[in-house]
Amino acid sequence: MFLKFIKISLVALFFSFTLANFGSVFRSDGFNLYFFDIVTLFSCLLLALYIIKKHYFSVNLSFLIGNLFGLMSFIILILSHHYFNFDDGLKSFFYLGRFLIYFYNSYFIYILLKEREISINFLKKLFFGNFIFLIILILVQIVWFNDLYSVSNFGYDPHFGRVVGSFLDPNFLGFYLVLYLWIATFIFPNAFVSFTSFFLILATQSRSSFLTLFLFLGLWFLIKRKLMPLIFALLAIGFVVITPMLQRFEHISKSNDSINLRLQSFENGFLIAQFSDYMGIGFNNYKTYQKTLGLLEESRLNTNFSNFNDSSFISIYVFSGFLGILIFVIFLATFLKNDFGIMLICLILFNSNMNNSLFYPPTSFTILLLLFITVLGNRFFINFKT
């Protein structure tokens, strides 16, 4: 009976992450509570109780390094308490806690997979059902939220005529779909998921997603030496050439272009790091420092730009200094055990340094879960394909 509740909680967990911004429960200055936050906490507690009850708990190097990063982030946040008021501090602890819960949830799922408490077929159904739900939400977005100007007051960019899904952001959705393309290619081969993901990535018109897609296709060709990634690449190039997408690549010199705004974000991040004595300012104190140093325009006060750097690794550097970056790089290095892990790390490093996808909740959880799945090794992936 307990295991049945575990499976129900995992179904709710996967679907709640795909619900993304459509599941917003509460929004205030610098604090966003989503339905998946509640589901994730409940799922994490349930998984922990089951694993303890069955005496399945075990520790690997990735888990130890991840906990070291969390502990160090927690200590730095406490030491930097004099830089923010009580409300800001509470928000900072919330965001750090959210990321750590994603980490523990992912690891607990990995343990259940390793112990064969969760079948391969069940995980396959979770991913496939989740993908169908994502398509439904994309259709809802196209019909009712084709013009995001109406929600721009909540911090979303006013995109028009682009596929953004429940994420309300084409860049994050695009990378999420690249991850699904990776899943459908190397874990659960599925032509429908592969082709649908590919064409939806094109429909996002996201340059960062296009570049990540080409990186994936190049790595896929190098690893498998198959013709399919080349066909996908030609289709993508053809889409860029014959659609207005070409203009988005040609006009990157405009002062208000997103690429130039990213460069400004990178510059701001390194400037803030100097004022933190290279020891880090604490998790999610980025907005406080931007306001204090006059780096944040009034019009961008409640946007994603205010809370994090566009680069995940610059964010980590600002939050926790050189030591934080070193520990996190070591954490990622523990997953470089096979072709699947190497490819996934390359995609993460590339995309998360353009869109901060490492700290966007749906992609954050998916990244951590897929990383732990790669630990199960080539033999496990072969079993997936049988």
Short overview:
The protein has 386 residues and is mainly alpha-helical. Helices cover 70% and strands 2% of the residues. It has 17 helices and two strands.
Question: Key terms for this structure?
Answer:
2 strands; globular; two-stranded antiparallel sheet; 70% helix; 386 residues; 17 helices; mainly alpha
Question: What do these coordinates show?
Answer:
- The two termini are 28 Å apart.
- The radius of gyration is 20 Å and the shape is globular.
- A two-stranded antiparallel sheet has the order 1-2.
- The chain has 17 helices and 2 strands.
- It has helices spanning 2-19, 35-53, 61-79, 86-114, 120-144, 170-186, 191-204, 207-224, 228-242, 245-250, 258-275, 286-292, 304-307, 312-333, 339-355, 361-374, 377-384; strands at residues 24-28, 31-34.
- The model has no long low-confidence stretch (mean pLDDT 84).
- With 386 residues, it is an all-alpha fold.
- A hairpin with a 2-residue loop joins strand 1 and strand 2.
